[in-house]
């Protein structure tokens, strides 16, 4: 079964200011940002109609700092209020829209496990970023070498 698309795509570089969406949230995102992808997926799962604005992070329009003074994505503007921080946004989306489709498990043990996993995410991302920074470039090529990764299944 194919679901209907619930969002329109805009490119910040083509806009003269923030998108005005009557009653719909506006997600400011970048394709490669995993934090913004988290919010995008929450909106899709909850079937929230929204506007999506692609922000080129290396060339942000000057008006974007009015949406998020830090200049980061994701940001969601809804009913005149801008919100940031992906986990906070996911929790806000979960409590605000389509309450029949919860993003969190209802069983206490599963909810505790989810919260534990979410609280460890910054450490995991930080470790990944550090590993990538420690790469050495081969003198014969411009490709960075990543350390070997071993995956195990529980």
What does this structure look like?
Helix content is 34%, strand content 17%. It is α/β, with parallel strands linked by helices. The protein has 4 helices and 7 strands. The strands form 2 sheets. Strands 1-3-2-4-5 form a 5-stranded mixed beta sheet, covered by helices on one side. A two-stranded antiparallel sheet has the order 6-7.
Question: Brief description of this entry?
Answer:
The protein is an alpha/beta fold.
Secondary-structure map:
Elements: E1 7-11, E2 26-29, H1 34-45, E3 50-54, H2 64-67, E4 75-78, E5 81-84, H3 86-96, H4 108-133, E6 136-137, E7 144-145
Helix pairs in contact: 1-3
Q: First CA to last CA: what distance? A: 32 Å
Tell me the strand order in the biggest sheet.
Answer: 1-3-2-4-5
Please tally the helical runs, counting DSSP H or I stretches of 4 or more residues. Answer: 4
Unreliable spans are 136-147, 149-154
Mean pLDDT: 82
Radius of gyration: 18 Å
Q: Number of DSSP strands?
A: 7
Q: Key features?
A:
single chain, 154 residues, alpha/beta, two-stranded antiparallel sheet, 4 helices, 5-stranded mixed beta sheet, globular
């Amino acid at each position: 079964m194919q679901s209907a698309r619930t969002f329109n795509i805009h490119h910040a570089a083509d806009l003269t200011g923030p998108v005005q969406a009557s009653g719909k949230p506006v997600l400011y995102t970048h394709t490669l940002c995993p934090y913004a992808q988290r919010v995008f997926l929450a909106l899709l799962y909850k079937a929230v109609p929204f506007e999506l604005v692609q922000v080129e992070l290396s060339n942000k329009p000057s008006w974007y700092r009015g949406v998020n003074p830090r200049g980061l994505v994701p940001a969601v503007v809804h009913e005149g209020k801008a919100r940031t921080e992906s986990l906070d946004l996911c929790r806000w989306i979960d409590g605000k829209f389509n309450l029949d489709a919860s993003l969190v498990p209802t069983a206490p043990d599963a909810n505790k496990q989810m919260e534990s996993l979410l609280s460890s995410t910054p450490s995991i991302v930080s470790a990944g970023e550090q590993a990538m920074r420690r790469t050495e470039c081969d003198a014969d090529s411009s490709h960075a070498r990543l350390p070997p990764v071993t995956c195990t299944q529980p």
